[in-house]
Amino acid sequence: MPKGSLMLAITKAAGSPSEYVFWASPTGDQIRVRGLVHLYTPSSPASEQSVASLLPDLDWEAFRLEQWKGLSSHLRATFVHEAPGEPVDDDHEEEVERLEVGDEKEEAALKRFCLVVFEPRRSIGAKPPNRFTWTLEDNGSWTKQRVAV
Questions:
Q1: Of all residues in the chain, what percent carry a pLDDT higher than 70?
Q2: Gene3D superfamilies, per this entry (predicted)?
């Protein structure tokens, strides 16, 4: 594991190619989306430049804070904790269970909270699929019937 800021190392790879695959369980439909991943962190001017062109009129920092406020207090508390595997001092405080907006540890947690922005470049299978049922007739032939999705 590299020492230092892992987040900084990741943000330098702005616009990294990625692919996401989603499955619709009952039907087995697959949707693939390829694109670029950008990270917006308030402490990295490079990350702001990376996302600024995607939505130039958006105040990215205000949007990040809006998303932060929408998180549960339990999820916000996870941003106070040290990264897994990091050494802790003997006088290490107990882990924070909840973090309300405005709590004293919020500033430290916010420094670790970033936006992951996905810029789609190609989408496969995102349109509604055609659906058919097949019925075996008495004469051994199959009848194809289109059905609603």
A1: 83
A2: Electron Transport, Fmn-binding Protein, Chain A
CA distance 117 to 54: 9
pLDDT tens digits, residue range 70-111?
A: 999 999 999 988 778 888 777 666 778 899 999 999 999 999
pLDDT of residue 71: 96
58-74: b or e for each residue (b if 16 or more CB lie within 10 Å)? eebeeebeeebeebeee
Which CA distances in Å does 23 have to 5, 32, 52, 131, 146? 34, 9, 31, 16, 22
Instruction: Evaluate if pTM is beyond 0.70.
Output: no
Sequence-distant (6+) residues with CB within 8 A of 42 are 61, 64, 110, 111
The string of DSSP codes covering the chain is --SS-HHHHHHTTTTEEEEEEEEETTTTEEEEEEEEEEEE-TT-HHHHHHHHTTSTTS-HHHHHHHHHHHS-HHHHHTTTSPPTT----TTPPPPPS---TT-TTHHHHHHT--EEEEEEEEEES-SPPPEEEEEE-TTS-EEEEEE--
